[in-house]
Amino acid sequence: MNINITKYYYGDIPEEKGGGNTAKTESTANWPLWEVFIRSKQGLDHKHVGSLHATDAAMAIENARDVYTRRMEGISIWVVESKYIHASSPDDAAAFYEPANDKVYRHPTFYDLPDELKHM
Amino acid sequence: MQTLINYTLYLADNALILAQRNAEWCGHGPILEQDIALTNISLDLLGQSRSFYQYAAQLINAEHPSAMPATEDSLAYLRDVFAFRNILMNELPNGDWGQTVLRQFFFSAYQFPLFERMKHSSDATLAAIAEKSLKEVTYHLRWSSEWVIRLGDGTEESHSRMEKALDELWTYTGEIFEPAPYEKAAVEAGFGVDATSLKDAWMERVSNILQEATLTVPAPRWMQTGGKEGKHSEHLGFVLAEMQFLQRAYPNATW
After folding, report:
1. Domain A15-86 part of CATH 3.10.20.520
2. A67 vs chain B: nearest CA distance in angstroms?
3. Confidence of residue A21 (pLDDT cuts 50, 70, 90)
4. What is the ipTM of this complex?
């Protein structure tokens, strides 16, 4: 028997599977998925910490507060619906990243710096 | 001193019993995120009750020195139904999710103005606990208000469930503003907050949220009372049985 497994990446999830505005059933499984980004300190970047389900952005932020900042992990939260994140495919890894492996000249290490420069 | 002890225990019992009720949802919430949200609220309330019990224990031990001094644990685990002063609303069974969030909303809408005033209490410890708790309550109020609006103004089914919950709980809201003798004494002594004076603020907030939730504020009706003075419904016994079983079966058991 052939079993067809469809692999979805973020952003490629079809509307009917991804939930969101199309969800009409009562099942909570159809609450859309949101990605959560938390900034741990003033001056640092928001970092991706995980995902969660929520019906709208306000609820997603509160859920993120309840799920991801219980132990003082953050001072600011961003959420974005997972379907709006488009990701590169792992299958493209070879073509995307490996060609950079042997191009050391792209690193700025071939300049002779005067001794007076301290903080480069 | 006895007034301060009674008043502090009233504040503690309210928080503890609602914490215990909310904790029943742990692992049973409608969705993981909300399960955690309500459990957080439960833990916040438990934390508030601990602060009040610790203070009450300290006062009791100063007033009645004993070979077995009171502790926060003995106050929570070793008192019987009649000694608890929590309002009846907090001991009611959870009902469905709608009824649970509506009760949380009613209680938070009471705690919010209560702690806002208590921040300025002449008793420094009560004032400090109120100030710390107020931040938690602000979030509880926001969270529960949004759920009341979401469900009331949601589907036909969620609306009718909220109407039912409102009808079920309304009878128990009057007790909040009926001061018990120790509350009146606490106001006279200067450290307590006059419960009757909170009613307008509570009613205004509740009316606004209910209106936004397309729900109707029930007409004035006869209100249940008694919890504040230890006259409880049959439900509190079951709450305590579950909560206190371990300490009573295995005294002084610890983790």
Report:
1. yes
2. 6
3. very low
4. 0.76
